[in-house]
Amino acid sequence: MNILYDSVLDGPLPNVDKAALLAALRAALPDLAIVHRSEDLKPYECDGLSAYRTMPLLVVLPERMEQVQTLLRLCHQRGVPVVARGAGTGLSGGALPLSQGILLVMARFNRILEINPQGRYARVQPGVRNLAISQAAAPHGLYYAPDPSSQIACSIGGNVAENAGGVHCLKYGLTVHNLLKIEILTIEGEQLVLGSDALDSPGFDLLALFTGSEGMLGIVTEVTVKLLPKPQVARVLLASFENAQDAGRAVAEIIKAGIIPGGLEMMDNLAIRAAEDFIHAGYPVDAAAILLCELDGVEADVQEDCERVEALLMAAGAREVRLACDEAERMRFWAGRKNAFPAVGRLSPDYYCMDGTIPRRELPRVLQGIQALSGAFGLRVANVFHAGDGNLHPLILFDANLPGELERAEVVGGKILELCVAVGGSITGEHGVGREKINQMCAQFNRDEISLFHAIKAAFDPLGLLNPGKNIPTLQRCAEFGALHVHHGQLPFPDLERF
């Protein structure tokens, strides 16, 4: 099934008069930066999921909260859809524009408003880069923990929208675990504060509800994040394995022993070779898989944990375990992992990055399933993932210039996500649903659950104008998806509800 917006499956879009809308915006907001010429709109036709592109009707780049408020009220009055965009690094098509809607780019909201070392928090605008927060807090011995691979470029507003994680989320949590409060605007221009400066607040946890809502409930205008003290000591162990199954079992043994690493990452041979060729991190290119295990804290505890983890890795079948000899080597080990995506991009003209999550015990089984799909469809797959929390990032290599390869990559990606659901996992861990996984939502949730999602959406956005067609499938789309699952009378997911 095509994942681009389909008026039959996703609901009709309004027919917006571009000239009239442009005139209304200029009258209401004469100082608002508006992009309207087709050649200038081109850079905004996709986010990080570049295989799918749609030209927006208009792009606006506000600099003040009042501009966003007026814009939203105008769009609400005129029934114009609004898609929010941060840095455009998202990998699920969450910021894919609509041909009959406005793309609201929050990149100019890029100021760090306050670093409070005593309270250990930072107040920032949504366009601030993730890494910039840690850089600003560093003189105080503090940092912001979530560190997605795109942290040098991604925005904190986008992190809130997708509930982003990173290589250290096993110990330090996702975005939702590192927020104190956010300020948002609804589609009607109402200003709300979700959360508080305290560690907890009474009432429903609307902050958690909003985090990960993919721009469907409101627009973030300010974020207050928690800052943590930098660990006194951090050590990284690099373990190499003759097969990925042993590496998967090693992950389970570490967690079973009650050790929670700061990071626990796994890469297969294709990803290892790509990263080593690109970064020269010192990876063993003949290994079938490697594990990177970071342990942090005070010196005595870290030393003891390193010895315990090394013993567990060797007992699980590691052929070699190396401890980073200094901070420079530790950073090289992590640079290879954090640059794995662009490194794999050098192996093929295109790749399709998936984001499923599984129970850790199912890791060997799912890796075998991915290998089988790779062989069956003739597409190479590089595996890079947060092994500690079971968040997989299979990278499916293809060439969009070859007829049918993109379609085959889509099928493989969909089947990988459905395999994740079948073993008790989820179709996304941190990239979000967006448009990319809209069909697989039908495999994970039933009619009542999807209807409840729509009811929550309607409570914030009754007209459905904020990022329509993303994150939550319509029942019509799920009915079509369910019908497609019948193959020669067999249902791969017999429990999947057919609406």
From TrEMBL:
Its EC number is 1.1.99.14. One of its GO terms (cellular component) is glycolate oxidase complex. The keyword Oxidoreductase applies. Gene3D superfamilies: 3.30.465.10, 3.30.70.2190, 3.30.70.2740, Uridine Diphospho-n-acetylenolpyruvylglucosamine Reductase, domain 2 (3.30.43.10), Vanillyl-alcohol Oxidase, Chain A, domain 4 (1.10.45.10). Pfam families: FAD-oxidase_C, FAD_binding_4. GO terms for molecular function: (S)-2-hydroxy-acid oxidase activity; FAD binding; glycolate dehydrogenase activity. The keyword Oxidoreductase applies. Residues 52-230 form the FAD-binding PCMH-type domain. Its cofactor is FAD. Keywords: FAD, Flavoprotein, Oxidoreductase. InterPro entries: FAD-bd_oxidored_4_C, FAD-bd_PCMH, FAD-bd_PCMH-like_sf, FAD-bd_PCMH_sub1, FAD-bd_PCMH_sub2, FAD-linked_Oxase-like_C, FAD-linked_OxidoTrans_Type4, GlcD. This is Glycolate oxidase subunit GlcD. The gene is glcD.
